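ok here's the first one, seq then struct tokens
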Amino acid sequence: MIVWLNGTHGAGKTTTSALVQQLIPDSRVFDAEKVGETLMDIAPALPGPGTDNFQHWPPWRPLVVETARHVLDYTGGTLVIPMTVLVEEYWREISAGLAQHSIPVRHFVLHADQDTLRGRIAGDTVLGPDSPFRLQYLGPYAEAARTWLHDEAEVVDTTHITPAEAAQQIAEAVKGNDG
């Protein structure tokens, strides 16, 4: 099974994924961003779109599917994937690829209101305060949430809860589905 944690930057995906992994037996965190980083390291650079966002390169999506599939074939269990996907076509491609391999996916969106997200980004100690990279995704996230994303996933509002509380909510939802 895959537990996919979606949402924009600052929603708490990375922190929450590590906590979810601790709560779900036989689970591992798979950072699909590393697949993108590998593509970004190819020299000379891949042609076409993608220099600002590796998700735009067509190989990224099937490589995420294949990597997840091979890891699950090797280890079994659950993969927790913290990854922002805001383009509906990309999400459909990934979820269809996983479905082709009969891999069940629980898709969660970690949501917070815009003021909370801006506050978290302002206090970010990883990319630094007010990261332009993180700020540029607030608008696209709001649009995706309004038009398709919240309809495609289980929304966990992190505005007033801790990452540990969000992880507990996700783990309980996943475990509740197993029985």
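and now the second one, same deal
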Amino acid sequence: MNFDLNLQELSGTFSVADVVAAMALSFVLSTLIGYAYRYTHRNVSYSQSYVQTLVVVGMIVALIMLVVGSNLARAFSLVGALSVVRFRNAVKETRDVGFIFLAMAIGMACGARFYTLAAVGAVVICAVIIVMFKFDWFALNVQRQVVKVQVPAGDDYTPQIRDVLITSEFELVSTETIRGGALSEIFYTVRLKKGAEPGDLVSALQERTSGQRVTVLTGYDTTDL
């Protein structure tokens, strides 16, 4: 029985120089994106692993584009193969999604050998991101607090609480029972007037609620409630 062990080279549509250029440029530009992300990150949810993933994603997408080329059958085969991949990690910030798409777009441009487009696109978009960060574009200079008040269940403390909050802009967010129904926990969003201090608000609420626990969370995202 004879076996044909001759391997056929299928990469005739691109040269070794094309592969090296695509991989090297996607690495450099994805690294630039990673540094732009790190520089403009503000919250405590920074992840080194996420930034490294941005670099890897850019290079992987460039490689995929080299494999696909202009072959439609190969493109559909890759789509089917990649569709079985499932990602279970939730993206912590909406801007993280934008950086993922940016890394993918740059990788696609490098893999398609649009080197000038990839370089100019990465530099311009990263520059826009840094400018928005530096000048704090679209910031809403309204500081709101979330006020959490615990009161005994069965007693209506709403009038006393509203008497204190009436001097500010406030809105009821939620009411729920805790500790087996022994206490009620009431959440309000409050915008304090200029010069008012959260400590003063806590003291006033405790006076009206017989010394019950009061918490003021400054700059809290009410969508998490």
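notes on #2: The mean pLDDT is 80. Residues 16-40 form the longest helix (25 residues).
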